[in-house]
Structure formats: C-alpha cells, structure tokens
Amino acid sequence: MRAWVVxxxxxxxxxxxxxxxxxxxxxxGDIESFYHISKLEGGALFSSVxxxxxxxxxxxxxxxxxxxxxxxxxxxxxxxxxxxLVPFSPDxxxxxxxxxxxxxxGALVVTLMGPIVMQLFPRERLxxxxxxxxxxxxxxxxxxxxxxxxxxxxxxxxxxxxxxxxFSLLLAALWFFLGSDATPTGKPQPASFIDVxxxxxxxxxxxxxxxxxxxxxxLNSSLPDHFRVAFGLDPKQASQLTSLFNLVGIPTAIFSGxxxxxxxxxxxxxxxxxxxxxxxSLCLCFAPIQELRLAAAIGLGISFFLYVAPLFTIxxxxxxxxxxxxxxxxxxxxxxxxxxxxxxxxxxxxxxxKTQSYGxxxxxxxxxxxxxxxxxxxxxETGPRARRDTPNSDIV
Length: 396
What we know:
Elements: H1 2-22, H2 24-35, H3 39-67, H4 69-80, H5 92-120, H6 126-134, H7 136-151, H8 157-178, H9 193-197, H10 200-231, H11 235-263, H12 267-286, H13 290-306, H14 308-317, H15 323-341, H16 344-355, H17 359-368, H18 371-378, H19 384-389
C-alpha cells in the first residue's frame, strides 16, 4: 500500500506540473497584455521551460548521488512549486526567470520517476507503472486546456495560476512527509556517468526518443497554422484536430503499460510505433480529406504513446541495472533529446520563411520519426519472454 501512496504523489507532482506549464496557453493573451510584451516574448515563457529540460536531466544523476532519491525529488517538487510565485512577478523578465526554475523542477521529477518506480515495485509491474507515469504530464496539459478557459470566465489569470501553484506546493509537502527512497535490500550498485555513457543502449534509447519528440514539438507548434494555410480550416477546427492525438495518448499510454507487461517483449511495440508514426503523421499533415486527417490523428496518438512504456522499461532490465544507473541514463536521454528536438519548431519556421509553406519542415520531421523504429530494431530485447528463451541469461 505504501508503494502505491508514494507512486500516487509522484504521479500528481508531474500532473500538476503539466497544468501549470500549459495553463499559460489559454491565459496567454491576458498575460501578454498585462506585461505589454510581444508574441515572441510570450512564446519565450514556454521555451524557457523546455530549455531547462534540455540540460537539467543530465545533472539529476549527480544530485541523487549527493542527496538520495527522496531528497532529490523533493528539491524538484519545490522548484515545480515556484509556479505559485510566477503570477506575482513584478516584470516580464522576473516571470521568465521563475518559469525557467519551474522547468528545472519538472526536469528533475521526470528524470527520477524511473529510479523511484524501480525500487517501489516488482519487475512484472514496471511496464504498467511506467505507462501510468508517462501520461501524467499529458493528463495535466489536457486538464489545463479544458479547465482553465472555464475558470477564466469567473477568475483572473493571476488567481488561476496561484491555484495551480498551490496544488504543486501541497504535493511537495506531501512528498516531504510521505515520499520514500524505498531503499532495496542488498548491496547498492553505483553507476558512474562514464559507465553509463559508454553503454550503447544509452545512445540507442536517446536516438529512438529524439525522433518522436522532434515530430511532437514540430506538430504542436506549427500544425494549427499549417491547417489554416494548406486547407483553410478555421482556428477552432485546427486546434481540435491538433489536440486530438494528445487526447488519444492518455488511454494509449495506460494500455501500453498493460500490454507491455502481458506481451513480455519490448522491441515489437517500439518498432511497430516507429513504423506507424511516419505514415500517420504524413497523412495528418497532407491528406486532402478531413476524415482521413481525423483517422490519422487517432493513429498518430496511438503511435506517439505506445512506445514509451517499453522504451523506458528497457533500462530497468539491462544487465547490471540499478536505480543510480537508470537515473544517469534517463538524464543523458532526456537532455540530448530535448536539446536536439527543441530545434524542430525553429527548423519548420525557417523553411516556412524560405518556401512560404510548412510542408517541407513537417515532412522532414515526419520522416525522422523513423529513428524510433531504427532504435527499437538495434536495442536488445529485455522482456521476460526473451529471458526465458535465453539459457543462462544474466539480465537482472
């Protein structure tokens, strides 16, 4: 029971992070008017969060060595709770600064989720728990888009953001009292940064994750305007179609965790999603019929979230794996993936300036999502079915 209490708090911390992260989107006009800032400056309030997620995760492993998992997650949750200070920023640059530190908190929490889960639950439950945790931030983002516009009819933007920040602060307090390192029995297994960086699996997982993430960021930043330019959709239709694959992702991520455990294999789901993703994304971007684009959005949502549970379960099942190893590996993977993928909206925008069309940029990232299938093909199979079929397996 205690394991589930700790897991629930961990899930809710990242769920609340998702709410505060994208509550800014429906309130963006009010915030920009209050601070008299441009659209470019308003966009930087989102980019500052992504910037933190491009380099902080690699530092998380060092933080764990110094403070342990529980204290490190608590530090991350406190940074997430800085969202309560953001609405009181006296000027735009203070708000930008606080949003960056808010992003630091989210980067720490997401990186350390895996090591905590690895210690809390038996191996056979890891795929399902990973699937649940991987949907936490998306559930928070969807909640923000659904709830914030309703609240804005009765409350000011500042009151809404304070409420979201209070939620994060409460969860940080709960983690302080109820969170756990869940230290396992047996001799701890240290993992140096160099040891993790030398493992080919680290870079294969980073490559596999970078392809879909670059496509995800490119689509969310450019797809609504692409639909307007290419097909004449009004803003409401374009936004609904863009949000559809995010909504589909929530049940898909949970199903992914369940089926990953039942199947007993990891690579087929990763490769399947990697082959489906470019097909569905190309159809979503370029199909001339709206019904085809709707079907493609559903397929894309499935492919975007089907692979995550098996991909991030593999590090927990590699030979010699330990919580410290997983923390360091996740840090490298998240940092590298966000550093490279964060450029995708800029590349799409640059190509639009050159061609007056989003087509070239979106097509490029639709195709680079094939990196997921390539990574899945090159990674070792670590699932229990593979261990049963391999005599004297040393996978732990």
